[in-house]
Amino acid sequence: MKPKVAVLSGFGINCETETIAVFEMAGATVEKLHINKLVNGSANLENYHIMAIPGGFSFGDHLGSGRLMGNRLRFGIREQVREFVKSGKLVIGICNGFQVLVKMGLLPGDEEVSLNQSASLTINDSGQYENRWVSLEFNADSNCIWTKNLTRIRVPVRHGEGKFVTSEKKLLDEWDKSGQLVARYVDPSTTYPSAKDDILPYPLSPNQSWRNIAGVCDPSGLVFGLMPHPEANHSTWLGATWTRESMEHGEGEGMKIFRNAVNYVIENFDK
């Protein structure tokens, strides 16, 4: 069977083409789905295995990046989203999609999928839009489906509001203990593993996110969001340093994330 992916579109999302491409490369059947179709009932998430919210500038970032799109999902298709996750299906949010998932309360989330917001992504400490390549390190002890067997990858960031924060710092310890702090910015000159809580200097951490957090998952490991763009490194020729390295053209480091999701669906769903 071929997993079916709904890549959401509309209202300023602008990375749907790349997101569709990487899922198709990973072996899935993909549909670009305008969020209004889910809200008005002409489409339903139950017909898909994976929901992807791409990057962009949904609703022009008014009231904060991801806030209005998050509300659109949280209140417009609340029960659809809750049943989707509870049925064991997968969700990914990239960049603005991550902001949406955090502000609608799906990430870091809870076991009840209550959609109560517990964290946020706020303005970069640099006070500017960051467009640069970064190195990520993944938590080997996490149950996140998306990052299985990943150690480090290089990916670009493209955001103005990517600093992960929470009003209750004790939650960071809880999320760390449960393996939900999946991806962190890391100094590429260090050996694996070396992710740490002390905030790395800029620009190793492009936004000064608390504990260098670049991505988190929910308790089930099914829902994953990250600020960097793995879909933007689907080919070795898209890497920042490929012209200075001896390598043959092949699949980029970011593709592993999407292959993990597609393989999970194939192994766990009959149709």
Report on this model:
- The protein has 271 residues and is an alpha/beta fold.
- It has one domain (4-268): 3-Layer(aba) Sandwich (Rossmann fold), CATH 3.40.50.
- Helices cover 24% and strands 21% of the residues.
- The protein contains 7 helices and 11 strands.
- The protein has helices at 16-25, 35-39, 67-76, 78-86, 96-103, 170-177, 255-268, and strands at residues 4-9, 29-34, 50-53, 90-94, 120-122, 130-138, 152-159, 163-165, 183-185, 213-217, 223-226.
- The protein has a 9-stranded mixed sheet. The chain has a two-stranded antiparallel sheet with strand order 5-8.
- It is globular and about 50 Å long.
- It starts with a strand and ends with a helix.
Global geometry: globular
CATH second-level architecture: 3-Layer(aba) Sandwich
What percent strand? 15-25%
Strand order of the largest sheet: 2-1-3-4-11-10-9-6-7
What's the main sheet like?
9 strands, mixed
C-alpha Rg, in Å? 17 Å
Q: What would the CATH topology be?
A: Rossmann fold
Number of extended strands: 11
How far is the first residue's CA from the last residue's CA? 6 Å
Overall mean pLDDT stands at 95
Assigned CATH class: Alpha Beta
Helix-strand pattern: EHEHEHHEHEEEEHEEEH
Q: How many structural domains does the protein architecture include?
A: 1
> Tally the helices: what do you get?
7
Assigned CATH superfamily = Class I glutamine amidotransferase (GATase) domain
Low-confidence stretches: none
SSE-based structural type: alpha/beta
Report the helical percentage.
10-25%
